[in-house]
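Hi D.,

Good news: the full-assembly prediction came through. Inputs first.
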Amino acid sequence: MWHLITAPILLPMFTALLIMLPPIHYSPNRRRWVSMVSSAIQLVLVVLLLLQVQQQGQLHYAIGNWQAPFGIILVADTLSVVLVCLTSFLALGAICYGSAGEDEKGSFFHPLFQFQVMGINGAFLTGDLFNLFVFFEVLLIASYALLIHAGGKNKTKAAVHYVVLNLTGSAIFLIALAVLYGTTGTLNIADMAQKVAQLPASDLMLVKSGALMLMIVFALKAAVLPLQFWLPATYASASAPVAALFAVMTKIGVYALLRVYTTIFGSEAGALSGIAADWLLPAGLATIALGAIGVMASQDFRKLVANLVLLSVGTLVSLVALQTQQAAAAALYYTVHSTLVTAALFLIADLIANQRGKAADRLVSGRKVVQPVLLGMMFMVGALSVAGLPPLSGFVGKVMLLQSVTDPDNRLWLWSLVLLSSLVVIVGLSRAGSTLFWRISGSDTVAETAKPLQVFAVCWLLLASPLLVIFAGPLTELSLQAAAQLYDTNTAVQLILGQEVTP
Amino acid sequence: METLFACCVGFLSACGIFLMLRGRTFPVVLGLTMLSYAVNLFIFASGRLTLRGAAVLGTSEQYADPLPQALVLTAIVIGFAMTAFLVILAIRARADLGNDHVDGKLPEADAVKKESR
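Then the structure:
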């Protein structure tokens, strides 16, 4: 059980390699089954890991038994394991959807998908900044290839922008890491947290510039204003299962912001504590506003969902910038909710687009969808949930996040922006829904109906929304616990470095 | 030595950023390559610049920090793979979109269209 923490990284890696080998590679069905079964096993394993973390507190694993701070370590605390669970849950849904036929439109869908899951899980679990960079690159190179899966002009155009931007981001990431290593002499997150607190005054400005450069990189991954321009085009042009998995990618940026600016540059960091908050709060609030405007302005449904992703990122980054335990707990619950629901909406958008003939998912009058009741129900559940209306998970998430804001100034801005953006989302989604389902022109379509596997995948992701409400008690408890563990930086750092724990 | 090194890194990044802001994919690829060279040199310098410093204990009076060397190696490999991918993507974009502009359409094309109206 000690090695369980490596499973979310090793399992997708070996699955990807296995899928590329004969005899599995030669048969589409075998590729699909191996990929799906492996994702299901992964989900079971990460739930086991979560139970283990619940029982024993934070776990860490020294790769090759090279102890921190010299070797690379993996750290599993409640926050990171919950996010790994989220990724596995989402990946299973997306792979099932992809297995219904989307995967055969290009080559190597399943291996790339597994590699991307490996990168995402690794980024959540690592306790070393350079290793974080490496896992970022693993997930990025897989995402580059997945983005152009199935081909097409739009995808190539979006991919060029996406790749160039992310390569620039990687360069800045490396510069920031070199600055931090040059001044603190370590790349281990826990060790750096201790070193930053004892910095000589002459190094403060250097470390500060390194830390702010890291913020730029994470803000680029998370798509925070003014670094968000790549997101709508990229997400709207990716094929449906890929876009669904991409829904969790922005959350890695948010997670990295939360981790780095709480553990390293948090309350213990002396002169450098809270350096990111001044920048992140206005940027997050502006992203909410921009996302809301984008929802209203979108000409097609997938762009609209991409703007919903932007909106959720803005909300999360504002919560991270508040730097309180309650805000971190609310951010965790909201991350789980928003990721699953926006991913489901990407899949629904694809189902609708497939059945509307030439109009596809553009918000113009078109042919009638073949299964209006099924798709309409799915759309309604997803829309209610993402807009934050009771009785679904968006409502609980929004209540939690509104309650977590205690400072009157922040309350004024965050409450008004979040509530106004919810109103805009309701208006935008009702407009989109009524256009897609009710404004009918032309003859009936002869498009094929949604395949059972596709329906299962969408229901799997949508089901999370009522489940998040039914089990809201234990889940808020869990996120509060994760936030408490995150903010108890001293204990975490001392545990990792093998020092005696002082309260 | 430090001044020369710093000038080198600065010049490479300046050239890289200038090229990255160009409109066609080939200069952008070159710019990214130059930027990644600058970054690699910069990581190398984070272990301090020493002459005749071995990275193995007990072989010289001054030691070089081996970690940045390992980091540079990783960064070079990753950067190389990414550049290779970007080159292929740029060629594909040239084939799919019919031109090598990063936005997929030439700014002049719009102007010509407007004039013809």
